[in-house]
Amino acid sequence: MLPKELQEDLEKRVAEAEYPREMAIDVMVALQNHYGHLSDEAVQEAAGLLGMTPTELEELATFYEFIYREPVGKYIIHVCDGIVCWMNGHQSVLDYLCQKLGIRMGETTPDGLFTVLPVCCIGYCDRSPAMLINRQVYGPLTPEKIDQILQKLKAQPPRGAGRVK
Amino acid sequence: MSGMAPQVLFQNRKPDRIATLDEYRKSGGYEALATVLKKHNPKEVQQMVQDSGLLGRGGAGFPTGLKWKAVADNAPFPRYIITNIDEMEPGTFKDRILAHSDPHMIIEGTILAGYAVSAQKGFLFVRPAYESSALIFERELKIASEAGLLGKNILGSDYSLEIVVHRSGGRYICGEGTAQLNAIEGRRPNPRGAPPYATDKGLFQRPTVLDNMETLACVPHIIRHGGEWFKSLARTKGAAGTKLYSACGKVNRPGCFELPMGTRLSEIIEEHAGGLPPGSEYRTCLPGGASTRFLPKEFYNIEMDFAPLKAIGHRLGTGAVIVFDQKTCLVGAALNLIEFFVRESCGWCTPCREALPFIRDLLWRIENGEGREEFIPVLQAMCKHTWKSFCAFAPGATMPVESLLTYFGDEVREHIGQKKCPYK
User: Fold this and answer.
1) Which residues, in sequence order, are CB contacts of A99 under 8 Å at separation 6+?
2) How many of the other CB atoms lie within 10 Å of CB of B391?
3) Which chain A residues are within 8 Å of B273, Cβ to Cβ?
4) Where are the alpha helices (DSSP H) in B272-323?
5) pTM, 2 dp
6) A11-50 residues touching B, CB cutoff 8 A
7) Which of A111, B62, B183, B254 has its CA 20 to 30 A from that of B39?
8) Which H or E run includes B240?
9) Contacts of A132 (CB under 8 A, 6+ apart)
């Protein structure tokens, strides 16, 4: 169940839109921020809020890179594997990151803090090799920088999975 | 040369922050809007933009004024204007740099385009990786509204326009105009066929104009200074405006540079991007993102403009130059690029869904020592099949592979002959 405040906020935003469906991504992202990922329950709730069927919503949920239908860590690390990062050492960045976290691509650390996922070119080719953590960009990456970033994130409480505001 | 290039779109660019509304206004910002609302009807604005020779900066290079004129006089309301900030062409980051420099220039351009086609609502369509841009736009749209530049009765005129930020969930195909319409509508973003054209039945089946962000940022300047001035900015004959070029990959100073349209590739790489690092020699580049062809070395001095590139069978694309040196495996590069397109294909039509993974598989084998000579004609045939796909995604996707085979066939055969990647 969604907290009353979030429920009412989303109802209001959907009501203000010219067509409720316009808000589909925003609603899914808000629910995934709340639950940590877009759970089956969240798909049902989002469909209810938008006046869509769960199947219609699933068509969208499964389409997009930044909608997470399975549990993810509090920090979602998307490592850019675009052509420029590929040229500038993406593989060694990814290997180092995974080794530091003790996980493979697609996995979450046992403490639930970090998930590593791929992402296509994020448009930070001037800061390559780069990655996004909860939609914030980091780059150009070196092993030392990765150490610093992970250390800093471990020390501070996360703002929420994929949280954008 | 760089010191002399007039800075139009980047005139308020700072190293660490956006230009505020006041700063934008001090540089002449929103003067075009005030003039237009007082003195010009929408048709006149369409004509001014057409006369300026402005071509769409998203890659297709379609004349912007003509697109706006395609909205019929008696077309129904409401009408929509969409600013495409779904910059997902690999190697491209010009729109992000501009959004982080002068957001009000983009907002004013969107309002002017909205006025030119009598739109009631505008959308700024932003990709998830550009969340920082989305936040900037939300804040600055509010500031513009409070200043009377947006919303009901803009600057006391009869014209009203609401603009909202629409966040994408993240897929490359959403940058394609018709797919973007479906994305905003909350439908699965497969591309749509045309006709009907978006200018006739677009978003929610209403007349809609969708333009690239850089394109619309040019509009306030065209209105303030005129079409002849805009044409005079270009270096090539018949072209118009400046262009936000970028260079990355094997260059010393990757970045985005505002230069006259038609600036030579060699100048962009050497003077603006600082040349190649020590030990690296220029070999080839993708001149405008991942869906352009590898450009052979003989064209190193080409004028980076739509027409000169077209004349030699190439595309300007987004003007995002990705530089490759002699130490980078081009089969590996083409494999990375096709991998991207395989992942991002929406899967709607068979040529795209089937041909791209097939090509990836053959390239992977070549790169990993399992290649055979007979793969080459098969790859060529598969690339051709993609021209029968439903949208421009797949033909773009195969451009690096097709040009690899055309210009760098020796390197492909070296992989096959040596049964390994010669760069490893």
Assistant:
1) none
2) 21
3) none
4) 306-311
5) 0.97
6) 18-26, 28-29, 50
7) B62
8) none
9) A77, A78, A80, A119, A122, A138, B129
